[in-house]
Write a structure and sequence with these properties.
heterodimer, A: 59 residues, mainly alpha, 1 helix, B: 577 residues
Chain lengths: 59, 577
């Protein structure tokens, strides 16, 4: 079992206020989903490049 | 290939069978819903259903009526409006989804109580109900007015007919019925779009290849899907899309219950994320396809004479009053059209030759003459019928469908438009009903110390809320003719509330030292500021999103700094303490 966490800016708080979990806190942004996020962002970059080429080719 | 100007029996059959099958399937699949929780939350859906539901909720009928017309008149630059969407879905998947799932919230605003308190939750929910309720009325009015004008259907019967069908299956199956039917509706929409694209390309003259069609559209400024030119007066460029669009889509997908409800019904965080990211990946290609169909309709009408004004009923009223002037304009339009057709054919054969620049200039001049005649026609309409709309781009695609697509497929494409209307309105209705019941009725019962109701009681309350919102939304739709420009009205209404709601969530998720009272004051100040700016200035409405969000954050941060510091603890810890 991991040690209970306390809020970093409250070094010494009563035991009743020890925070074991932050259920409403977002998890770290880059987990194993990072590669899928990169894929989605990469697709946006490819679409933008294709649209730019199409704009130039057709004008 | 038969050319039609109205609906044949086979069109009615296809239209009726498609709609009846979807509504019947949705009611049959969800008839067993027995408690309020599964009624408002839906049940354990997989990502393809979530993804299609998200797309179907966003794509309203006006998308399929207006976008091709917009591409016809203005090219494809509107697609840049969606460039912020993939980035917004990434942020929502990474930050919003795990929090919503971990707290097992049924509405987005429930999270605000976890993070702040009941007052903030009620404020967020109230702002959503006002903004979305008004917008839903216009969502249903916009296609109804166009369908009734073109097809001669009575306006109020069209509004209440679409509304009654939606209320029927939402009443039976709640959120799950919406998800199930949206999947079928989106499949019909996709099939319809592909068929429409194939038909319009097939209907081009033999000497016009697909490449040639794109070239001639490009020469007339219609192939413009991306521009990197930074211009603050141009609403649609890469930079506006990637920044302004990002905030707008973040607010819509992250905090608007009509969208949040679609992915809250996911089986797991992974399914919810995949459903959202599916939308992030395929929304831009879908919008591109719709705009491309509009551009191909534009090219088609370079070689086949289009109406001088696409809103034929309005032009007919003007012609009845001033026949000579309309006839003179039609003669001018005939001449301009023939000149443009000849110039377009010459441009296609001159490609790559020395004479290409000169022919291109001739084509541009011919197109400018067409625009002048159309402008004169609009002036005549305005002079004759001061209350009439002169904007006719919403009628372009429906005119093409009714006059140049074979029987049977006309019914299918009308089914696409009605499916889009029903799917977006259903998503909005179920979100309005859920928010009313979960955030107000059930929560306030709890706050007043009343005992929990039975499962049947809560289910009936949820169903009653859906029906009540159905009646309210249809009432708003019946009065929506008060708004001059419908699409703009929807966007303005959204922008009046989205910024403040987004500000609440930004503070909740990213500024963890800020507590309930400062953020509540910040939201009230922001909303008052936005409404004051809307009433007293001519500031572009898209700015309201950024101003509302920034004001909530700034006022809340300032007030928090002014308050005495106290230990920050999570609600879970406080509860156990």
């Amino acid at each position: 079992m991991t040690a209970p966490r306390t809020p970093p800016d409250v070094p010494d708080v009563p035991k009743a206020y020890v925070v074991r979990d932050f259920p409403d806190t977002p998890p770290p942004f880059w987990g194993r989903w990072g590669r899928i996020y990169l894929l989605v962002a990469g697709l946006l970059a490819v679409e933008t490049a294709v649209f730019w080429w199409l704009t130039r080719w057709a004008s | 290939m038969g050319v039609v100007t109205g609906l044949a029996a086979i069109d009615w059959a296809v239209l009726g069978a498609t709609i009846a099958a979807i509504v019947g399937y949705g009611a049959w699949r969800t008839v067993g819903v027995r408690d309020a929780d599964s009624y408002v939350r839906g049940e354990a859906l997989r990502w393809p259903t979530i993804g299609l539901g998200i797309m179907a909720t966003q794509a309203s009928a006006i998308t399929f009526l207006s976008l091709p017309g917009q591409a016809y008149a203005d090219g494809m630059r509107f697609v840049q409006f969606y460039f912020g969407l993939p980035l917004a879905t990434i942020l929502i998947s990474a930050v919003f989804v795990p929090v919503y799932h971990r707290l097992r919230v049924r509405t987005a605003y429930e999270y605000l109580e976890h993070r702040f308190d009941l007052r903030v939750r009620l404020l967020g929910a109230l702002l959503f109900l006002i903004g979305r309720g008004l917008a839903a009325g216009i969502t249903i009015y916009a296609p109804s007015i166009i369908l009734s004008q073109i097809l001669g259907w009575p306006l109020h019967s069209t509004i209440w007919g679409i509304g009654a069908l939606v209320v029927l299956y939402v009443l039976v199956g709640g959120s799950r019925a919406v998800s199930v039917t949206q999947r079928q509706q989106m499949i019909v929409i996709m099939i319809g779009l592909v068929i429409a694209a194939a038909i319009v390309i097939a209907r081009l003259p033999d000497q016009v290849s697909l490449g040639g069609a794109v070239r001639v559209a490009g020469a007339l400024g219609r192939i413009n899907p991306v521009s990197f030119q930074l211009d603050f007066h141009n609403r649609y460029n890469f930079w506006a899309g990637i920044t302004g669009g990002f905030f707008l889509q973040l607010s819509y997908f992250g905090t608007d219950q009509s969208q949040v409800q679609r992915y809250l019904s996911g089986r797991s965080v992974a399914e919810m994320r995949l459903g959202l990211l599916f939308n992030g990946m395929f929304k831009i290609p879908m919008q591109f396809l719709i705009l491309f169909i509009g551009v191909m309709v534009f090219v088609f009408f370079l070689f086949t004479r289009p109406p001088m004004h696409f809103d034929a009923p309005t032009l007919a009223r003007v012609e009845a009053a001033r026949p000579t002037e309309v006839h003179a304009l039609e003669v001018r339009f005939d001449r301009a059209f023939e000149a443009q057709r000849s110039a377009a054919l010459a441009f296609l054969t001159a490609r790559g030759r020395p004479e290409e620049p000169a022919v291109r200039d001739q084509l541009a001049a011919a197109a400018a003459e067409i625009d002048r005649v159309r402008g004169d026609a609009k002036q005549l309409i305005q002079a004759t019928l001061p209350d009439a709309q002169t904007r006719d781009t919403d009628y372009v695609f429906l005119t093409f469908v009714l006059q140049h697509i074979p029987h049977g497929l006309v019914g299918l494409l009308l089914a696409v438009i009605l499916c889009a209307a029903m799917s977006s309105v259903a998503g909005e209705l179920v979100a309005l009903g859920s928010t009313t019941v979960v955030d107000f009725y059930l929560r306030l019962r709890q706050a007043l110390g009343r005992p929990p109701g039975s499962r049947t009681h809560d289910l009936r309350a949820s169903q009653l809320a859906m029906v009540a919102w159905g009646v309210i939304v249809l009432g708003i739709a019946s009065a929506a003719s008060l708004f001059a420009n419908l699409i703009e009205a929807v966007n303005i209404l959204g922008s009046l509330f989205y910024g403040t709601i987004l500000g609440l969530f930004v503070v909740a998720l990213f500024l963890r030292r800020i507590t309930a009272t400062p953020v509540l004051c910040g939201a009230i100040v922001a909303e008052l500021l936005v409404i004051t700016l809307f009433v007293t200035t001519t500031l572009g409405y898209l700015w309201f999103n950024a101003i509302g969000c920034a004001t909530v954050v700034a006022v809340a941060a300032l007030l928090q700094a002014a308050l005495p510091a106290r230990p920050a603890v999570s609600s879970a810890a406080a509860a156990t303490g």
